Amino acid sequence: MSNHALENAAKALAKAQCAIAFTGAGISVESGIPPFRGPGGVWSRYDPDKFEKSYFKRHPQEVWPLLKEIFFDMLGKAKPNAAHYALAKLEAEGKLAAVVTQNIDGLHQAAGSRTVYEYHGSTRRMQCLDCREFFDTPSISLDRLPPPCPKCGGLLKPDFVFFSEAIPLDVHMEATALAKQSDLCLIVGTGGQVMPAGRIPYIVKNAGGTIIEINLYESDYSYRTSDYYLEGKAGTLLPMLIEKLSEFQS
Ligand code: NAD
Ligand code: ZN
């Protein structure tokens, strides 16, 4: 990646009036969370069919230990990295309106980001499938699996989107409305293949906005959608972009 590309991207960000970030699994890789797909990914080791909502409801005894292993033991210990902190800093400085994330790990909030749209839900909450009540994950003991609902004893499900489950409508509507008003989208660490979340950058682009992309490898966005494609690690490039941005701010 040339210094020129970084400089032009920083200039575009300095000019933006309403910028949003759109993030995926890649931003959390440097926090030690593997991507789900591809070699070494979660779905090469676990059977994704077990994380279908109807299968889970029929076999909670079988699925809950897997959920605990992947989503609470592994994701739960992860800490934000330099890329998460960089986005939180951008927001605090008034240069970023929101983060729209496909991740369920809660690391944007842990880094200090305040306006976060979690397109696929979060491991930080659970919902009872019987009484519908929500609970913060740390308040639920996972010593006994499946953990019973504290209110009614019913079946708790982590509040992230399972396969064949609809995405949260309120988040979808709000993130779409925000994307329509945005004049810049900073894409970080996503292949862009999961829909409808993956449409967010296209909404910004179609409304005349600018797209900056940070990824280790070219993605579905890189050729036709991204105005500035910065190739490399999010934890290195995002702090560099912010550093450059300070040179162009009045
Ligand atoms: P993906 O796994 O399809 O793609 C990850 C992308 O990140 C790739 O394009 C890869 O080139 C890039 N990447 C990897 N390491 C990077 C780094 N250090 N810096 C910059 N880019 C890097 O991810 P996706 O597009 O987000 O789709 C996966 C789906 O699975 C999402 O819907 C998400 O909800 C879920 N998921 C969530 C988590 C999490 O919460 N941390 C982890 C894995 C998957
Ligand atoms: Zn309940």
Explain how this protein is built.
By secondary structure, the chain is of the alpha/beta class. It has two domains: 1-33 and 80-120 and 167-250, TPP-binding domain (Rossmann fold, 3-Layer(aba) Sandwich); 34-77 and 121-160, SIR2/SIRT2 'Small Domain', CATH 3.30.1600. Helices cover 36% and strands 17% of the residues. It is built from nine helices and nine strands. The protein has helices spanning 3-15, 42-45, 53-58, 60-76, 82-92, 107-111, 169-181, 200-206, 234-248, and strands at residues 19-23, 98-101, 116-118, 121-128, 134-136, 156-160, 184-188, 210-215, 228-231. The strands form two sheets. Strands 3-2-1-7-8-9 form a six-stranded parallel sheet, sandwiched between helices. Helix 8 links the parallel strand 7 and strand 8 (210-215). Helix 1 (3-15) packs across helix 9 (234-248). The longest helix has 17 residues, at 60-76. It is elongated and about 55 Å long. The chain binds nicotinamide-adenine-dinucleotide and zinc ion (ZN). Residues 24-26, 28-30, 33, 35-37, 102-105, 120, 189-191, 193-194, 214-217, 219, 233-234 line the site of nicotinamide-adenine-dinucleotide.
